[in-house]
Amino acid sequence: MPEQPYEPERAIAGTGMGGQMDLGASEAVTLEKPPGPDGAAPEDKPRSLWSDAWHDLRRNPVFLVSALVILFLVVISLWPSLIASGSPLKCDLAKAQEGSQPGHPFGFDGQGCDVYTRTVYGARTSVAVGVLATLGVALLGSVFGGLAGYFGGAGDAVLSRITDVFFAIPVVLGGLVLLSVITSNTVWPVIGFIVLLGWPQISRIARGSVITAKQNDYVQAARALGASHTRLLLRHIAPNAIAPVIVVATIALGTYISLEATLSFLGVGLKPPSVSWGIDISAASPYIRNAPHALLWPSGALAITVLAFIMLGDAVRDALDPKLR
Amino acid sequence: MAEPILEVRGLVKHYPLTTGILFKKQVGAVKAVDGVDFHLDRGETLGIVGESGCGKSTVAKMLVNLERPTAGEIRYKGEDITRLSGRALKAVRRNIQMVFQDPYTSLNPRMTVGDIIGEAYEIHPEAAPKGDRRARVRELLDVVGLNPEYINRYPHQFSGGQRQRIGIARGLALRPEIIVADEPVSALDVSVQAQVINLMGRLQDEFDLSYLFIAHDLSIVRHISDRVGVMYLGRIVETGRDAEIYDHPTHPYTQALLSAVPVPDPEARERRERIILTGDVPSPTNIPSGCRFRTRCWKARERCALEVPALAVPAEFRYARGPAAHDSACHFAEEKRVVPPAEEGAGPVQGPSPGEGPFAEGEGPSAGGPGASEGEEPGTVGPRRRGAHREDGEGGADGG
Amino acid sequence: MLLEVRDLHVEFRTRDGVAKAVNGVSYGVDAGETLAVLGESGSGKSVTAQTIMGILDTPPGKVTGGQILFEGRDLLTLKEEERRKVRGAGMAMIFQDALSSLNPVLTVGDQLGEMFTVHRGMSRKDARAKAVELMDRVRIPGARERVRQYPHQFSGGMRQRIMIAMAIALEPRLVIADEPTTALDVTVQAQVMDLLAELRREYRMGLILITHDLGVVADVADRIAVMYAGRIVETAPVHDIYKAPAHPYTRGLLDSIPRLDQKGRQLYAIKGLPPSLTRIPPGCAFHPRCPMARDVCRTDVPPLYEVTDAPSERGSACHFWRECLHG
């Protein structure tokens, strides 16, 4: 008898786990599903797309940096007073355009308001618009697109034409026209406008992804068992079709933030006395020669925020779709 | 004769070809299935063979109500199920289940094995009381030769053969009477195919199942089927008992098909007559008039273009009682043996003393085999199990 | 010998360690001979072929040892440029999936003609004429008209013929066909195999046929090499192996296929699953599934023993080949 007979069955039985993780790999010749580390019994923890994605994301520096930035943004938009003691609306014209000084690291803008405080408070608007608009867009788009993709037929044809129409509307021009008639000075009209123009994009993605998912044999198998439409959609199709929607929505979030800034810059988004990076950029642009810092800080914050969300979306896409790597 | 459990009459499925975006106009049709009749008796296996695009998978989908027939009847115990809906349809579905071809796409990757198999009970709550379901799923895993402990695993943790076992367990969950299997082993490796085929054979005895077994591999179909139907371009062209079709084919297409199958016996190379068909299968949008096989048939004459041959016992064999007297849709049917008869006892392996040694049928592995798998051979096999065969190897080997 | 592979080793780096796809494979093909390499997925049969052709993806693949002698020259020591010259003119490959192996945006005439404009420096007009001639030779009806068509306008069998035409365009001495008919229907499969056999005779090419189908092998091969877990477990002339295999794996495979000419009873099934290439069992890789395995099989890797009892030249990598051979 050799010292260590190779008995895979027994070895695996001893750990109380199965040794099947590697079997897929043995069938597919090469590089697919991982067994556990050599010799050891593979972990029994169920692995899914999400856990695999999380495994990849945790090791991705792009994801870590962007997630940290976003976390920071969310925290300061919920509790801006944590790092800014003053009020963004307390301005002193006498200090207009002054540079950095103790207690006011970013200096003052054309109205004599503290740029640091306004930049911190501006995050709230941006994050609120970005997150709420994305939620609205994703919800509306995936419901419409998902249903159209699933049921097909005339409804699908009509929806596809409607999305074509929306794609034809120039965003900024549409914003100038639609938002200029609204007097309310809250984030809601801006969010509403973004949702209105944004959902067709998600709807297309969701539609395509549902059409792909519904052709899978496991959907047919569930249908053959007699599963209802609700069950098919929620249990079989949605979990397998949601990944592209999440990816596109994350990337879109960044662009929505910049869209809000654009609209506010143009004077049709938020208006003073609301606080928004777009308003500040707009207000500071006439004084760019004398007080560039008043333009620099809100613009910088905006750029970093948008970049963080787009990078996050990229990282999530890579993790969810290994084929794109 | 007892009433067949399933009877199909004049089954047709045409997919319309349309143009236009909002206002569609039909410009033609893909005639995937174009008038198919057959019946399935209780406890038997009907094999359907045919090349890709012949419509065999579409027939399967209509039987389990994944596609609605354009015309025709599917009678389950005398009742036409094509017009059923709602509760009545759901009740019939319990009794006709399907096993899919591709074990990689037929299991939802986001669900555990327990959820995949147990979903049948969620959809049909009357089939099993709530507290009982997990136990039933475990039992099913055991029956198909998988370790019941794997109930919480995800499909990708299994090999192809094991996944197909999961697919079979799902098909069995509702204790159906009929299983429609669409190419259940064609995606598997040769050594694993035999395991799955043996499993299906055992389950048929154990659960008194009737199989409709669809495949392109003629050897496998012969192995598992009692009767065989040969499909070409949306129709069955010849049907009969397995020996009638394989040893006494009368339709030229069947003869060509059989003669083309490579036989794993190099000695047969010289003895075999090969019928090499010319050309390709015509498009199902544009089916030839008369006999649909005539464009590739070496026997075709004028009559073949004018008259559609009926699927019936050809006139020349009608009064002869013999294996050639079976349904064949050909005007000029004649018997022709294309598969050379196997020599007596000529299994592919001929030891000096057949029936002995480790490879003899029904014998377990000899001493010294990896013992761990032995005791784990998935137990609960019913009393009607055929002998102590070795088909559980795959499940057993990792059943530790 | 036209091609001789000697003790070839190929590894793949994977997330979970090194997958040993090919572990010391040796085989040879003579001019005019058909060698069938038989194995299931993961046996290393395709990786060996890709290595011979020099189309192995590196990384993740890596040749870690061995020689590939083609007409006496070791291909593994050649520079990439010289190797490219061998491909096409010296050896060519036919793939399983003809649709994805042909460029969808070029006509088949352009793709066939390219072989001549690139390798032979012909003018476009001459190359086009050559393309028509080739399509005639692989018996594509209406070659003169169809030369201007795109791959998707051909049926599966016709596309495979185009692949074959491309492979034989420069009259190579060796053709490697990797599952050339697996994707085809059985009646078309017979047409394509017939064509391949005829061309092989006509040009006296060596043919390596990679397949998992024991039926196809019996129909066309002269010699056969059975692979399992990256090794050759048995090699023999095709008539002998079907009569009396000398390795339990070959024997199990032959017993496990249903037959067309007789009604099967219970099929023999090889128990268990092929091993993961990252965790090949020590000793004989087949021992966990082998009904004849003994202690020595778990420790000692069996060499390819010469099967001395047989009248022909054969080998078996089983410690107990004699027992297996004699039942």
UniProtKB/TrEMBL annotation, chain A:
It is a multi-pass membrane protein. Pfam families: BPD_transp_1, OppC_N. This is ABC transporter permease. Residues 123-313 form the ABC transmembrane type-1 domain. GO terms for cellular component: plasma membrane. It comes from Streptomyces tagetis. The keyword Methyltransferase does not apply. It comes from the Bacteria. InterPro entries: BP-dependent_transpt_permease, MetI-like, MetI-like_sf, OppC_N. The keyword Transmembrane helix applies. Belongs to the binding-protein-dependent transport system permease family. Keywords: Cell membrane, Membrane, Transmembrane, Transmembrane helix, Transport. The chain crosses the membrane at residues 62-83, 127-151, 171-199, 241-259, 295-316. It is found in: Cell membrane. Residues 1-46 are annotated as: Disordered. One of its GO terms (biological process) is transmembrane transport.
UniProtKB/TrEMBL annotation, chain C:
Residues 5-254 form the ABC transporter domain. One of its GO terms (molecular function) is ATP binding. One of its GO terms (biological process) is peptide transport. This is ABC transporter ATP-binding protein. Keywords: ATP-binding, Cell membrane, Membrane, Nucleotide-binding, Transport. Its main location: membrane. Pfam families: ABC_tran, oligo_HPY. It is found in: Cell membrane.
